[in-house]
Amino acid sequence: xxxxxxxxxxxxxxxxxxxxxxxxxxxxxxxxxxxxxxxxxxxxxxxxxxxxxxxxxxxxxxxxxxxxxxxxxxxxxxxxxxxxxxxxxxxxxxxxxxxxxxxxxxxxxxxxxxxxxxxxxxxxxxxxxxxxxxxxxxxxxxxxxxxxxxxxxxxxxxxxxxxxxxxxxxxxxxxxxxxxxxxxxxxxxxxxxxxxxxxxxxxxxxxxxxxxxxxxxxxxxxxxxxxxxxxxxxxxxxxxxxxxxxxxxxxxxxxxxxxxxxxxxxxxxxxxxxxxxxxxxxxxxxxxxxxxxxxxxxxxxxxxxxxxxxxxxxxx
Length: 316
Fold this sequence. Notes:
This protein is α/β, with parallel strands linked by helices. The protein is 47% helix and 14% strand.
């Protein structure tokens, strides 16, 4: 009789602990869901929890350590372009699968998956707008779309953007982030390097400003082309910038690379970038650069006087 009572008591004690454990795990899951809902953000560098609204108000820069969190193209446009001035260009352009490429899945399926997941047609958004009231042509790459790899649509949209800017005599700003050329499009992807570079040369011949902004990461064919062809090259703090990956270089050289290798700070020290600008200061810095490099328009009276002088010289 006593043994039965003891066994029932022991069983109820186990049930009590089990219920406590179950309720504790439920509360933990509830807490995790609350954090996952986007109310708070944990910094990947210092681990500090920040209220998401405060983080967005600081342009996704950690208020504790200054870590620059990755932002998408829509957020970047909101940070840089004045309200109600953004006019997107060439949104109808969409990538195709000319090589019928297949790795773990068909390239066409990968494209469709990325378009549904991100709401983007490809890895760059282009358009015209204003920065502190000054007109500008802006391209913003988005790392969410296949690592912002440069395919035919990326090259075509950036080329058209630059040509529009040359025609309108606007400065060009391209916010760069990329894992490099898009291997699924083979040589067609590599040709975009030459196409964009040629458009930039025509833009430069017209004596117009081009500023690339290098963000984390900027690598591969993008670094080897338009990311490094700017009149003034700006980088975000601690951004990874390079061509080949760190591991590939270490395996090739068979030696350990410095910790700051391929960082924005190391490139600034060696003269590859002109300045490192925190994201919170980027818009005002770009506005100052644009204002200082406004194209000089020759007054009609000066043109008429020079024509008259030339005509009189010929007559003599």
